[in-house]
Design a protein that fits this description.
D-Maltodextrin-Binding Protein, domain 2; single chain; 9 strands; 47% helix; SBP; alpha+beta; Bact_solute-bd_prot1; 444 residues; globular; two-stranded antiparallel sheet
């Protein structure tokens, strides 16, 4: 009897010990590794540095970063999600991919808790990342486009720039301040080919002249009157008042020219305002002033809209951990953390109403009000004067647009360089776009 009790007791002790061992083993295995694919720009690199705060608060989650250049990132994540590769648990995607991928069922719906305050997200950005009222990606930072100009040069010319100028007013001012002998060009604009390079700007010009990429039957409209007028205006502006070699200039090249005082005006991403108004980076920081992107026949689609966002692939096995990380990195608290660490001038902008309502941010970023107005005025679902079948301001959110945008961008750059006429460039663009749309089965 006693022996059997001893045996039973020993068995119970062994079982209890085994249970403890299993629980320790379980704890060791419970750490979830999240693989995050992101782009190698300043805001994202800062997020990686600050992510130690997230790991300290969530010891059961380990973060592994894959940081890539924009083009490579886009290629890698597109291949992975289309083939259900499962390589990444969190992906950094643009406003272009978000609606396309969510409609294909490639992304998990995001369901952040009440503390996240979805209603604090700027409406234009939230709308661009939602389908049927459901959020499929969370914005890390966003931008629109705006006019940045040298107020000292405008004052000297006796011109007061309105808050929302027209393109003819911009042309008049460019003519007055253009002084190439003294190294000052009336206006600097993107000319480098690419759907996200020159075509981002040119599309907004075409929009405000009353143009659109495709009509309601998905037929390309590149030889329409608004496109001809818009592109002719843009090419003439750069030929007469732009710097030499404009057909090779994009954001970085023009940022360098503007910061060294060589551009009288520049229409580009709102993110540039923080650089050109920073005395550490710009010779003319104190002279820079800001207004809305110019309009022509309509204000619709004059300000572009872009954001970098975090999303979870549909097949992910780590949804809860991924959701937790995305909630942290796109929250109000994260913006406060960046402000505390690096100052309010360096927080990711363009995503939350509360950022723009913050007095310290307003003081650190004198372009803040103009930037918020620009973002708020952009509407990706209503960006053209005639009704259009696509979502997007400076792009059409369809898979075929990348190839079309790249081809058209090359024609526009050739027109700026004087290698082809505007009419020939638009004719070749129309042929390419029509071929791509037929091939994809939009019409016969």
């Amino acid at each position: 009897m006693h022996a059997s009790i001893r045996v039973a007791r020993a068995a119970r002790v062994a079982a209890a010990a085994a249970a403890v061992m299993w629980s320790f083993a379980g704890a060791a295995q419970a750490q979830t590794e999240l693989v995050i694919a992101t782009v190698n720009n300043g805001h994202m690199i800062e997020m990686q540095k600050l992510s130690k705060h997230f790991e300290q608060a969530n010891p059961d989650i380990k973060l592994k970063w894959v940081t890539l250049e924009e083009g490579v990132l886009r290629q890698r994540v597109t291949t992975d999600i289309a083939t259900k590769g499962g390589q990444f648990d969190v992906m950094t995607i643009g406003l272009y991919e978000a609606p396309i991928w969510s409609k294909k069922g490639w992304l998990q719906e995001l369901k952040p808790d009440a503390g996240y305050d979805v209603d604090d997200l700027l409406p234009a950005v939230r709308a661009g990342l939602s389908v049927d009222g459901k959020l499929f990606a969370a914005p890390f930072y966003a931008e629109s486009s705006m006019l940045m100009y040298r107020k000292d040069l405008a004052d000297k010319a006796g011109v007061q720039v309105p808050e929302r100028p027209t393109w003819p007013q911009i042309k008049d001012l460019a003519a007055k301040i253009h002084d190439p002998k003294n190294g000052i060009y009336g206006i600097c604009l993107r000319g480098k080919p690419g759907w996200g390079d020159n075509m981002a700007l040119i599309t907004t010009i075409a929009n405000t002249f009353g143009g659109q990429w495709f009509d309601m039957q998905w037929k390309p409209q590149l030889e329409s009157k608004p496109w001809k007028e818009a592109v002719s205006f843009y090419v003439d502006l750069l030929k007469n008042y732009g710097p030499p070699g404009s057909s090779a200039n994009s954001f970085n090249e023009i940022l360098a020219l503007t910061s060294s005082g060589k551009c009288g005006m520049w229409v580009d991403a709102t993110i540039a305002a923080s650089f050109v108004s920073d005395p550490k980076q710009s010779k003319v920081a104190s002279q820079m002033a800001f207004a809305q992107a110019p309009t022509m026949n309509t204000p619709k689609g004059a300000n572009w809209l872009w954001s970098w966002n975090l999303a979870i692939p549909a097949g992910s096995k780590k949804v809860a951990a991924a959701q937790k990380f995305i909630t942290w990195s796109t929250s109000k608290e994260y913006i406060q953390l960046v402000a505390k660490t690096n100052g309010w001038a360096n927080v990711p902008t363009g995503t939350r109403k509360s950022t723009y309502a913050n007095a310290e941010f307003q003081k650190a970023a004198r372009f803040a009000a103009a930037e918020k107005t620009a973002i708020d005025s952009a509407n990706p679902t209503d960006a053209t004067l005639p009704k259009s079948p696509y979502v997007g301001v400076q792009f059409a959110a369809i898979p075929e647009f990348q190839a079309i945008g790249i081809a058209v961008g090359q024609q526009m750059s050739a027109a700026v360089a004087g290698r082809v006429s505007v009419d020939d460039a638009l004719k070749a663009s129309q042929v390419t776009a029509d071929r791509e749309m037929r091939k994809a089965g939009y019409y016969k």
